[in-house]
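Support request, priority: normal
Reporter: lab tech (M.K.)
Component: structure prediction queue

Hi team, I submitted a job for Nucleoside hydrolase from Paractinoplanes bogorensis yesterday, and the status page still shows it as pending. I've pasted the exact input below so you can check whether something in the sequence is tripping the parser. The sequence length should be 311 residues. Please let me know if I need to resubmit or if it's stuck on your end.
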Amino acid sequence: MAIPVILDCDPGHDDALALMLATGDSRVRLLGMTTVAGNQTLDKTTRNAQRILALAGATDVPVAAGSARPLVGELTVAADIHGASGLDGPDLSLPVADLADVTAVELMRRLITASPEPVTLIATGPLTNVALLLRTHPEVAARLHRIVFMGGSTERGNTTPYGEFNILTDPEAADIVLRSGLPLTMVGLNVTHRALATTEIIEAFRALGTTPGRVSAELMTFFAGAYRRTFGFEHPPVHDPVAVALVLDPTIVTTVAAPVAIELTGTHTRGATVVDLHGRTGAAANVDVAVDIDVDAFWRLLLSAVATLQP
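Reply from support: The job had stalled in the queue. We restarted it manually and it finished. Here are the results:
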């Protein structure tokens, strides 16, 4: 039976790949998609979500726009990584479906309440919408199977030395989610930095000979240039699809239960995910933390999903 999923995201090149994985694998039933400001402003991330759904032939999936800024402070986008549009690189001039006439939080509430089975919420952007959902509609918690989020790290950050972009963009939202008591799974940089889009991987997507395959290759090619300029990486990591892959096939990503807290006040460490892998704090484990990945299986999964999408 397909897993009912809501994808909350801020497309973003790797979000786009995550969306294609979620629409191209029959083990997921994508109930809806909600957008948040992060990689770019809300209007751009929302438009990008609509364009990728159109590319995937999934315009029947409802899309709702969410929060345009974090709970505290101002938004800082990642234009250095994702470009002025948030999806620079490929030509995505596609007709798109209308947005849902409700907010992201309201769409999530309706979909979760209406689902006959508990829903998995996958978040691949800042956790602002998710925090607002839990804060304003706590009754939905009983209808959630779990929340899987791409963010944080057991090690270093990528925006500050210890702050990963999604968490650092809205640490207060992340703190609300991690204190929720819900089943949580964190897919952080320590694992996603191993899911590298090598030249051979990119060419495999191009060789599919379809528009989704070509666009995937062009997305990763642009991403490669951005990561080379910004971080000196030879090949770019594709973070967000790893969170979807974990939901589809738990054997691909290994997790361990651990206490995780969000640093909110540190001068140099605000936005850090403090992961107590060795039980030094004595706190109870509240998150299943990704610690390893079968890279080859991950790429086979993603390639197979994109291959099923319309030509």
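The two ends are 26 Å apart (CA to CA). The chain has twelve helices and ten strands. Let us know if anything else looks off. Ticket resolved.
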